[in-house]
Write a structure and sequence with these properties.
By secondary structure, this protein is of the alpha/beta class. It folds into 2 domains: 122 residues, Alpha-Beta Complex (Aspartate Aminotransferase, domain 1); 237 residues, Type I PLP-dependent aspartate aminotransferase-like (Major domain) (Aspartate Aminotransferase, domain 2), CATH 3.40.640.10. The protein contains 13 helices and 12 strands. The strands form 3 sheets. It has a 7-stranded mixed β-sheet, with helices on both faces. A 3-stranded antiparallel β-sheet has the order 9-10-12. Helix 1 runs antiparallel to helix 8 and helix 2 runs parallel beside helix 8. The longest helix has 21 residues. The radius of gyration is 21 Å and the shape is globular. It starts with a strand and ends with a helix.
């Protein structure tokens, strides 16, 4: 029996999302930019989906720009947002624990002459309001921070940061990578305070190949892709209506966060009871649990678990097996990093999945002690 516990990397598409995808492929295949009946029907569906996704953020439909994924949304916000403000300054604030989609965007901008302040987080991976304010300068043009750390589950107070920053420098653009936070923690643009928010479909049981960038009304940002006038001229190219339809369907579903929170608590108790030397990071996100068996290798444990159809990861899937820069940045010792495993939960998980994981890790430990 399969036990899929890598939902921070990607989720299983829901039946509702798959049905919406198939229906768009089979019946709503017109180009939304075409003026004939099939095109107008597709356009109407596109705008219906935009409204559904906007509603899930408390945003206006016209504030949603569709992209291909969360990484593209991050690139769009960080690179084009910064370049749209370059006459006002060349300073950017971010952190040492961002996703590579943000980190590598910052590297590109740094090579072009922008100055980057990369803040050190606390020992869970969250960035404090005070650290952002201490780094804020008159020439700061952009701040980019993730809401939920994708490896540790740490939650950064984006609302608090926004309020404090806007009081000191209202012209700074605040971008939030909410790919791991969307539908997991409360995010409403009316209170959240970010000017741009990146989200992704495949993290919430939609299909892969679709994301979105919320851009607050009246925020000026340079286009990411030029060509046609799709997406208000900010991202040219025919919209992927099947993927967008799946995304909208997933946004309307209940994330069952309370159930996931309870499952995380159950996992902590079950794993620590069965394996006393196991350590874990205490973080607020309901769906991410980072554990470690110091003295063990993550790859060995993952490979052993895979033989039992138990699927976990050692860090972000985008790292492709490389060492976690997040755990290094928060000061985790090498032995703990080398044995770290990320558990990603979803509403489809059960206590049986956790029991199987605990049994698998216990068996691996027992075999090694022979």
């Amino acid at each position: 029996m399969e036990h899929y516990l890598d939902n921070a990397a990607t989720t299983k598409p829901s039946t509702e999302a798959i049905n919406a995808f198939v229906e768009a492929c089979e019946s709503n295949y017109g180009n939304p930019s075409s003026t004939h009946t099939k095109g107008r029907t597709a356009k109407a569906k596109l705008e219906e989906c935009r409204k559904d996704i906007a509603n899930s953020l408390g945003a206006k439909p016209e504030e949603i720009v569709f992209t291909s994924c969360g990484s593209e949304s991050d690139n769009f916000a960080v690179i084009m947002g910064t370049k749209s403000k370059k006459r006002q300054g060349k300073h950017i604030i971010s952190s040492l624990v961002e996703h590579d989609a943000v980190r590598k965007s910052l590297d590109l901008l740094e090579n072009e002459g922008f100055e980057i302040t990369r803040l050190k987080p606390d020992n869970t991976g969250a960035v404090t309001v005070d650290s952002v304010l201490d780094a804020l300068r008159d020439d700061t043009v952009l701040i980019s921070l993730m809401a939920v750390n994708n490896e540790t589950g740490a939650v950064t107070d984006i609302t608090g940061i926004s309020k404090a920053v806007k009081l000191k420098n209202p012209n700074v653009l605040l971008h939030c990578d909410a790919v791991q936070g969307f539908k997991k923690i409360p995010i409403n643009v009316k209170t959240f305070g970010a000017d741009m928010i990146s989200i992704s479909g495949h993290k919430i049981h939609a299909v892969k190949g679709v994301g979105a960038l919320y851009i607050k009304a009246k925020t000026k940002i340079n286009p990411l892709i030029v060509g046609g006038e799709q997406e208000r001229g900010l991202r040219a190219g025919t919209e992927a209506l099947p993927q967008i339809s799946a995304f909208a369907a997933a946004c309307k579903q209940d994330g069952e966060i309370e159930k996931i929170k309870e499952l995380k608590s159950y996992a902590i108790k079950t794993l620590t009871d069965k394996i006393p030397e196991l350590t874990y990071l205490k973080t607020e996100a309901p769906h991410i649990l980072n554990i470690s068996m110091p003295g063990w290798r993550s790859e060995v444990l993952m490979n052993f678990l895979e033989t039992k159809e138990i699927y976990v990861s050692k860090s972000s899937a985008c790292k492709q097996g490389k060492r976690s820069h997040v755990l290094e940045a928060i000061g985790t010792n090498n032995a703990t990093i080398d044995g770290a495993i990320r558990i990603g939960l979803s509403r489809y998980n059960t206590k049986e999945d956790i029991d199987a994981l605990a049994d698998g890790l216990f068996e691996a430990r027992k075999l090694a002690h022979r």
